[in-house]
Amino acid sequence: MSAKIISFPHIGSYHVPIKFLLNALAGKGNKAISPPPITKKTLELGTKHSPDFVCIPFKYNLGNYIEVLENGANVLVQTSGGCRMGFYGEVQEQILRDLGYELDFYTIDAERGSAMDFYKAFKDINPKLSITYSIAAFAVATRMAYAIDGIEEFIRKNIGFELETGSFERMEKQFLHALAQATNVIQVGKVYREYLLKFQALPICKPSNPKKVGVVGELYIVMEPFSNYCIEKELAKFGMEVTRFLTISYRLFSKKHTAEYVLKNTGSYLKYDIGADATDSVGKSLDLARAGYDGIIHLKPFGCTPEVNSMPIVQRISQDFKIPVLYFSFDSQTSETGVKTRLEAFADMIDMKVASQ
Amino acid sequence: MKAYLGVDIGSISTKGVVVDDKAQILAHEYLWTEGNPIHAVKRVIDALQKQIDGKDIQVKAVGTTGSARKLIGVVLGAQTVKNEITAHAIGTMSRVPDVRTIFEIGGQDSKIIILEDGIVTDYAMNTLCAAGTGSFLMSQAKRLGLAIEELGEMALKSQNPTRIAARCTVFAESDLVHKAQIGHKKEDIVAGICNAVVSNYLNNVGKGKRIAAPIVFQGGVSKNVGVVRAFEQVTGSDVYVDEFGHLMGALGVAVLAKQSGKEQNFDFNIQHVEFITKGTECKKCANNCEIIHVYRGEDVLDSWGNRCERGVSA
Amino acid sequence: MKIGIPKALLYYKYRIMWRSFLEDLNCEVVVSPNTNKAIMDTGENYSIDESCTSAKIFMGHVSWLIGKCDYILIPRIESYANGDTVCTKFYALYDICRSTFPEAKFICYNVDYAHHQTEWKAYKQLGEALGASVFHTRRAYLNAKNELTVYEKILQSNQDDLIHSDNLKVLIVSHPYNIYDEMLGTPIIRFLKDLNVDVFFADIPDSADMCAKSKHLSRSMYWHYNKEIVGSISHYESIIDGIIFLTTFPCGPDSLTVELLLRKIKGIPMTNLVVDSNTGEAGLHTRIESFIDIIAEKKKRGDEYVG
After folding, report:
1. In chain C, which residues have their Cβ closer than 8 Å to the Cβ of B126?
2. Higher pLDDT, B170 or C259
3. For testing the chain C interface, which of A49, A302, A305 should be mutated: the one with the most C CBs within 10 Å?
4. CA–CA separation, B77 vs B302, rounded Å?
5. Minimum mean pLDDT among A287-301, B227-241, C267-281: which range?
């Protein structure tokens, strides 16, 4: 039997922990590889073979799959989710088979975020896999995700004020490279602490009361910078501190403990959960408004049902708290210049408001 | 006397104004971009110079806005390069200080700006298609065998505007043909088109926005009295169209250039200076970023378009 | 008390049950009229641009009911079992309407079996909100449920009667709120009947049976309303000449479901009609007519093309 080469779709910088985990679980003789970085070609490929009005994360995922199959992958994994994302896997597998690719396809129900979900799926690929080993590998991957989320939070808050252009991005690359070398929890912790200090040592010029904006919205678009035209870094260029709650560690580990609280916290705005991450979009928008943020950016794929559900409610919050909200929908035709023009106007609007106070 | 130059370069038209330090217009020009922004700007600059020729006017700062703002900003050595949303808001406020709502429908895009106490609080731009913008009106006028200028007056004659589905240009056209064939009067169809432009606009960019008076309507389509009337009917308030409505972006960016505090005498003699733009595709990764280089003669003035450092040396 | 029911979305599934239950509890029921251009336009005005057309129509009906009743009934449905959920639009409609129409009053019941909120529990709470005793509510609920079942059985037997006819048989695979809407499916059904085609409706066969049968075509489908209609394809496979999918733009579940089915089903001619508020009838007629021509030709040539 030939070696299994396992791959997965990109999302942000999480290919480091995902690759680590899949590699660990793959077993002897098998390995995991990352798809090539997302480029325009990835999206073109994905769009070409996707149904017309499916949401754009599907197209990015499919593009990743095709590119990585061309690089030799023969086992693909997908996770399920709370909206139509949960059905991505079956349709993508069918499309790839219709294109003539030979592959095994596994959809992992990672909704509960436990090592057992992966153990169950990988038992099939690697019959020798033990539960304890899976738990250990999962723990390392989890720590990696937390490390990425911690570092990225620091970046979002400070990159807008860097003195030397590009210093944060260079350091981010070094960090991810170092993180990928780690093989146990202790090493991950060491890399994290080391780089947090290195980031803190980068020279910045940050006012004591900077303009602050929060990013809310759909998980993929929020987390994959390519798909949102690096919106967080673009915002930072206007000298803003950027906050976001939605990260892998929040999504997989915190959400299940806080969901009830988030819903309750929306008070009269929501009585029920409105699907996928949309309840969070409402809850976090309300938090940002209450915390006196200067603005909110709401991101989603075109036609994303849960996030479309959240919009009328976020609009009410915006009116009640007089906090500006800028909405973006991304599909394969979204113009980058259009996005930038509107971001620039958003920054001007906030500046004018701050100046008038 | 100190003066300030503002230039607004859109995909369809190019506008320029020279204002004094109280934002009063000293000279203005409006012409078609014809797909060549650099040439259009040279013509605008030339026309403006002729208008202020012989007067004691020294332009101290330059601002650019519109879709080619960056390119023209480099060409003119502008102190201020601003997006058209902010520029329009500032320009309009210099004419109508208490404005609350700005409707703008241009050739290919439209926007809405909501202001409160002299600051922008909300805005939106059309994102998906050109239905309901100037180019839509233009093609429909052509289809009906009318000049674009005739549409407005004709719409006013209608007693019973035809309902036209105008969410999408393609659908609207087939609907229009259908309505004409079953015998609707031409003026009713024209009024229907004007209503469709308005309802499409309000449904698209105006969705969820708090529209309050005073309302100012600008952009090329504001010259159409039929559309103005339709806006007034739907909003229930007067809709003000400024005679200089088409110049608001240029005016705004001139004001912003003045506010920038940076001053440098502007030399109007650029007609004979050769500016060249070159677009190259960076082949260093599959992104194929399109990188634009602007040359003044032999010298590279600026380049942009690369997404990563790989493109810088290209 | 006057309760308004929007004639859209789940109305087409539960109208018999709602009316029976509410009237039993001494409520007067007001139903909005058939969808028309004005309702569609209003719905469009009150919806986020990217909502699906079916949901936009719903908003138009809600707006029509405001001022004509004391409360408007908007159920909230999340799941019918663990892993058997519905489009998130049904999670959110109640809250969307509260934000969109702050001046109106809404009444809701919440069905979510995955979180132990059964249909009976939901109706019990609804009855309580309407001031009825649990005993009265229980009786009204069982009666209403029974009436719905009887009604569904009649529809099933009527549809089964068609199986032996010699006409062309086309299965309409779509959600009931699209099939029976005056502006979406009805004109298409009428046109098919004019062409002498027998129309089979995917939503009519027994729900539990269809959900089970949907496994033949999709192993992982978890949308209850999609399973119901997908199952009907396996159910009628042997007797139908063609399948028409009817989807409203940009329906999330259907965008993937239809793609999968178009790829998986072999041997039955299929066409996918995507409609929105702009779709002109003329264009649709041309497409349907040519589709019917194709399946008629195929039937005439007999078995040589089958399979």
Report:
1. none
2. C259
3. A305
4. 11
5. C267-281
The answer to whether residue C50 neighbours chain A at the CB level (below 8 Å) is yes
Which chain A residues touch B306 with a CB distance below 8 Å?
A: none
Q: Which residues of C touch B204 (CB under 8 A)?
A: 49
Complex confidence, ipTM: 0.94
C155 domain residue, yes or no: no
Which tens digits make up the pLDDT trace of A98-135? Answer: 999 999 999 987 766 678 888 888 888 899 999 999 99
- Mean pLDDT across the stretch B133-154? 83
| Chain C CB within 8 Å of residue A54 CB | yes
| pLDDT confidence of residue B181 | 72
Residues C97 and C138 in one domain: yes
- Report the gap between the CA of C44 and the closest CA in chain B (Å): 8
Report how far residue A231's alpha carbon sits from residue A57's, in angstroms, rounded to the nearest whole number. Answer: 16
What was the pLDDT predicted at C306?
46
CB-nearest partner of C92 from A54, A80, A275: A275
Number of domains in chain C: 2
Residues C250 and C112 in one domain: no
Contacts of B125 in chain A (CB under 8 A): 338, 341-342
* In a shared domain, residues C114 and C199: no
Based on the domain organization, do C138 and C73 belong to the same domain? yes
**pLDDT reading at A93 higher than 80:** yes
Range of the domain at C170: 163-301
Contact A121, A106 (CB under 8 A): yes
Q: What's the rounded Cα separation, in Å, for the pair C57 and C43?
A: 5
- One-letter identity of residue C146: N
Given 3-state DSSP classes, what are the helix, strand and coil percentages for chain B, each rounded to the nearest 5? Answer: 40, 25, 35
Identify the CATH number of the domain in which residue C202 sits: 3.40.50.11900
Residue C157 within any structural domain of the chain: no
State whether C183 and C55 are in the same domain. Answer: no
Taking residue C49's Cβ as centre, other Cβ atoms within 10 Å add up to 20
Shared-domain flag, residues C193 and C270: yes
For residue B314, what pLDDT is reported? Answer: 39
A305: nearest Cα among C117, C249, C258, C211: C249
Whether residues C133 and C172 fall in one domain: no
Domains of chain B: 2-92+250-259 (3.30.420.40), 98-241 (3.30.420.40), 275-311 (no CATH)
CA neighbours within 13 Å on the CB side: how many for C193? 10
- CATH number assigned to the domain comprising residue C143: 3.40.50
